[in-house]
Amino acid sequence: MATVSERRAPAAQPLPAAFFAREVLTVARELIGCVLAHGPCRGVIVETEAYHQSEPACHAYIGRTPRTATLYGPPGRAYVYRSYGIHALLNAVCEPEGVGAAVLIRALYPLQGIELMAQRRRTSDRLSLCSGPGKLSQALGIDLSLNGSSLRGGPIRIYPRHPRFREPELVRGPRIGISKATELPWRFAIANCKYVSKPWPWRRSFV
To answer: Which residues of 81-113 are buried (b: 16+ CB within 10 A; e: fewer)?
Structure first.
């Protein structure tokens, strides 16, 4: 019989909906270091951005529409939308149902399925595999069909922080790739991490 020390630790369970049913800035910070998985591919979340219905950069700012309905739905769902007609971007819906808010997953540190990611991205440069929201969706095979799916039940799942990233040192700065509410410092990243999207926010104020 195996001793206690020889037994495997229980497998980590995906984050519950209650994790996401909180203020979006809190979730954006605490998702850093968590593990995002889809199929055989996994990566540590190293960069996020928060969006809330109260500010014009958020899709929910215009109110509930067929496109934004997912944002107002239950927390812990995937909000996947097409950006510039090209990239599918993954967001985690946050705050209580009825509030339009989400965290954009901006970058990952690749962990598993790296060969498949490289094939999908047509690059062998590990630093750039998932260094942007469109890149990581392409690398992990995430598309619009996954909009509204559960981030606990799958097929996309988010797990608690990786052991190597339990207490990451964070920096924050203004969001990028937008033209409205650009002054809000709602972008979060691991300090001095070269896997985040450019421009790197290393010299911004610390969290």
So the answer is: beeeeeebbbbbbbbeeebbbbbbbbbbbbeeb
Q: Parallel, antiparallel, or unpaired: how do β-strands 34-38 and 41-52 relate? A: antiparallel
Q: To 5 degrees, how large is the angle CA 117–CA 43–CA 203? A: 110
Token pair 């890149």 in the structure block, residue = 135
* Cα 107 to Cα 130: distance, rounded to the nearest angstrom: 5
The tokens of 31 are what?
Answer: 């998702």
SS3 2: coil
Give mean pLDDT, residues 195-204.
Answer: 77
Q: What is the pLDDT of residues 20-55, one digit of tens each?
A: 999 999 999 999 999 999 999 999 999 999 999 999
Q: Which CATH superfamily is domain 12-190 in?
A: Methylpurine-DNA glycosylase (MPG) (3.10.300.10)
- 63 Cβ neighbours under 8 A, 6+ residues apart: none
pLDDT in tens, 66-117: 999 999 999 999 999 998 768 899 999 999 999 999 999 999 999 999 999 9
- Other Cβ atoms closer than 10 A to 62: 12
Residue 78: which H helix or E strand, with range? strand 78-83
Residue 207 scores a pLDDT above 80:
no
Tokens of 105: 């997953």
